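Appendix C reproduces, verbatim, an entry submitted by the partner laboratory led by Prof. M.T., so that reviewers can inspect both the input and the predicted structure.
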Amino acid sequence: MSLKLRINDDMKTAMKGGDKQRLGVIRLINAAIKQREVDERITLDDAQVLAVLEKMLKQRKDSVTQFEAAARDDLVAVERFEMEVIQAYLPAQLDEAEVEAIVSKAIADAGASSAKDMGKVVGLVKPLIAGRADMGKVSALIKTRLG
């Protein structure tokens, strides 16, 4: 089952179950997917839907940081709930050892030896870990390995 179909099925289930909070988050996800499809005039595949979900998750993390700094615990709770719902659609996260192994292999495959080769390494790593690790941390790891 495609990710978009799964999201739609979950929306129907939330409607039937009366879970208004979850339904609201799923509708936000659907709106973001549809907005990207309209903007780019395409139909998103699972990889592109994952990219939308990752972007939404990153936005929620940034919001949590802002709300915690402002001592708005009520808004932090809302954002964390939204993060939980979004994460349910993302694949299982890789642990540090798995990420390091993928990065090491990509560096060897690309024949990378300096920071100039970072783009090649990121290009090899990104499809392998899409949605399964934080690309900011992965980029930092690649940079330290090549630096």
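The mean pLDDT is 92. Additional entries are available on request from the coordinating office.
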